[in-house]
Amino acid sequence: MATRNVVLTDHMDQVINDLVVSGRYQNASEVMREGLRLLEQREAEELAKLDALRHATSAGLMDLERGRFIEIGGDQLGELLADIGERAALTPTKNR
């Protein structure tokens, strides 16, 4: 395994010490590895969200180019957004 020296704030050092003393982790290395695993997971989730947004944007732009859209007035926007919100709330998702 590779070894690195890192500079921690006093607060970060205390968090690590508290987790080790609690018995949840055997040593500081375990705490740091868990933190990096969580960071890696969060980064992967963010990339997946960004990819989904890119695909949705692409699909929306294609719909616009093909004339598949409706025009609404400003007075209808609130109602449309409320309807979309209600449908989204009823749609089960993995990460809610």
From TrEMBL:
Antitoxin component of a type II toxin-antitoxin (TA) system. Neutralizes the effect of toxin ParE. InterPro entries: ParD (IPR022789), ParD_sf (IPR038296), Ribbon_hlx_hlx (IPR010985). Keywords: Toxin-antitoxin system. Belongs to the ParD antitoxin family. This is Antitoxin ParD. GO terms for biological process: regulation of DNA-templated transcription. It comes from the Bacteria.
